[in-house]
Every structure is written in structure tokens, then in C-alpha cells.
Design a protein that fits this description.
The chain is an alpha+beta fold and 308 residues long. The chain folds into two domains: 3-208 and 275-305; 212-273, no CATH class. The chain is 68% helix and 9% strand. It is built from eleven helices and four strands. It has helices spanning 3-47, 50-60, 62-73, 75-94, 96-101, 107-137, 152-155, 161-180, 183-204, 255-262, 277-305; strands at residues 212-217, 230-238, 243-245, 264-272. A hairpin with a 4-residue loop joins strand 2 (230-238) and strand 3. Helix 4 runs parallel beside helix 8, helix 6 runs antiparallel to helix 11 and helix 8 (161-180) packs antiparallel against helix 9 (183-204). It is elongated, with a radius of gyration of 25 Å.
Length: 308
Amino acid sequence: MRGMAWLVWRQHRTAFVACLLLAAASCVNMLWQRGTTRDFLARARTDGTAVDVLEAFQGAQSSAFQSATWTLSLVPVVAGVFLGAPLISGDRERGTVKLVTTQSMTRGRWILTKLGLAALVTLVCSAALSAVFTWWWEPAHLYVNSGHWDESGVFDNTGPMLVAMALLHFAAGAALGMFLRRTVVAMVLTFGFAYAVEILWDTVRPRLGTARTLTSPVEAGRPKLPEGAVWHDEWTVDAHGGLHGFGTCFNESTPEGCRANEGIVAHRLEYFGYDQMNAMQWTGAAILLALTAAILTFTVWWARRRPL
């Protein structure tokens, strides 16, 4: 490593090394936890039914996964607040950028090197953490969070999602640092950005795939979900195909008579199959990475064209 890359590493080596070491330590811990989980499941499946295994898992293993998912949910925040926000704002606040760009270094090379090296650290850390957590989670996916893989703790921390989230937050932090020039202000606003993304993404996640449906006669009760599937929505259906809320006639003194009056003849259950998870994650990651690319492109353009 030499030239501008060496300078950027020297400037931010504390943050870079800290992130790499913390990611490595977390990966080692999750690898050890995976062995413990596999041994537990092997014993539990031998001794009990599926319900017994789920109950035993919730008592013995759920806390480890809850701690891991909470920790991983902080990775994008750390990437944005502690890597992205100070990356450029620090140079602008101290005036270092003027010294660097008055030497033989062009603005374009300066901004690309800074963004590229910090993004590489973000990519390496988040990819390693996501890969190891996914490897740990997969053997126990029916039991972690009661099998609800569509919620943020699992969905956003496995496959490509953690990497895409971390890079988006990093890009947003770097952009805010570029525009605001004040490191602390950029860090605070990046934290606010992370909170807003969390709320917004909860509304986007269920729309990343097309829900499948199961229908059964009303007398047969609620359809049974396939193994590994997650519930999305539920309706009752009349003879003309019209949809009614699942609770229709539920609180009536004579539910059968109410359903007859409403013409309700079937239950309709909407769900996402476990085999849809990978495609939904890549769709979500593509959206996030496109936003990341747009933010970084604008940041580079601004740095090259506008006064620093």
C-alpha cells in the first residue's frame, strides 16, 4: 500500500482496524455457536417431536440468536456513523483537504481513494459477518424467531442484505459529511437516517416478493402452512370470490349462521415460501445497492465540481 491509499489508511487506521478486529471476533464467536447449535438440535430431534424441539430451542438457544441479530443490526449504523460520516467531513473541518488537493493529488483521485478504501472495509466486514451468521442460522431456521424469517432480525442480517444495508448507510454518512463539513453533525444526522431507513424498510420488505395462496373450505378450518413458510395475510372468501376480513363473524353468537348470511364458503391464506427468501433478499439488495451507487456517484461529482 502506498501513495494516497497509504495516507487514507494512516488517517483512519484506528476505525478500520477496530472494525476488522470486531468483525473477526464476532465471526469466531458465531462459528463456535454454530457447533453448539448443531449438537443441540441433533440431541433434541432424537429425543422429541417437532413441537418439543421448538420449545427446547426457545429455552436453550434463542437468547444467543437474539444477541447476534441485535449486534448485526448495528453493523449498518456503525458503517454510516463511524466510518462514513467522519471520512470526508473530518478533512473538510480541519482543512486537510485543501493541503492534499494542492499537491499533485487531484480531487477525483482523493475522493475515489477515500470512498473506495472505506467501502472495501465495510464490504469485507459485513460480508464476513453475514456469511457466518447465515451458515449458523440455516440449520436452525425452523426454530429461530419461531421460523419467522421475514422479520428484520433474520431477513436483514443474512444473504446479501447486511452487505447492502451497510454500504447504503456508509454512502449516506459519507455524503452527509461531504455536504455538512461538521463531523458531529454528520454523525447525528446519519444516525437519524439509519432510524428512518429501519422504519421505511419494514414497509418495503413484504413487497419484495409475490405472496402465494392456500384456500380451504370454511368447514375444514384454516389451511396449514408449508414447512418453513411465513404467514403474510388471511381472508375469508364468499361464493362470488369476494374477500372479507378474517375476523368476519368471529365474535357472532352463531358464527355458522353469520357465514351463511354473508355467503362465506372458504378460508384464504397468503404466505411466503422459504424458497422465496433468497430471491426476495436479492431484490431488496439490488434496490439498496442502486441507491448506494446513486449517492456515491453524486458525492464524487460534488467533490470534483464544487468548492471544498
